[in-house]
Amino acid sequence: MNTWPLRLTPGCDLRAALAEAVRLQLPTGSAFVLSGIGSLEDARLRLAGAEAATCLAGPVELLTLAGTVSPQGLHLHASVADAQGRVLGGHLLPGNVVRTTAELLLAWSPEWALGCAPDAQTGFTELQIQDRR
């Protein structure tokens, strides 16, 4: 397994910039996000079981970020804290703009390719793992 530290800069959309960096820099086009910290202008999350986005007015601290990136999409979970220290977590949606920095650690392996496809059992798009050995 290989690791790759990545810093995203102010003004970029966290999801879009992460997807583009993985697409351009990693040979499999996929990675696991092991950790992520930083700050966001505002937070856009989908909470457990919810259909709609929840927006937390910023600035907010990005406390954790973890998940998967594949050519077919991203599945990221995050926790964020507001100025009073209240913490909220859920699925990271598009529209999370980096405020000062987003510092990520990614892991990837040339032996494994990640993807996502509809899963009949769950009704959601789920992780698919391809062994390339």
Automatic annotation (TrEMBL):
Listed InterPro entries: PPC_dom
Organism this protein belongs to: Ideonella dechloratans
UniProt keyword terms in alphabetical order: DNA-binding
Keyword Secreted: no
Cross-referenced SUPFAM superfamilies: AF0104/ALDC/Ptd012-like
Protein name: DNA-binding protein
GO MF term list: DNA binding
Residue ranges occupied by any PPC domain in the UniProt entry: 1-130
Superkingdom field: Bacteria
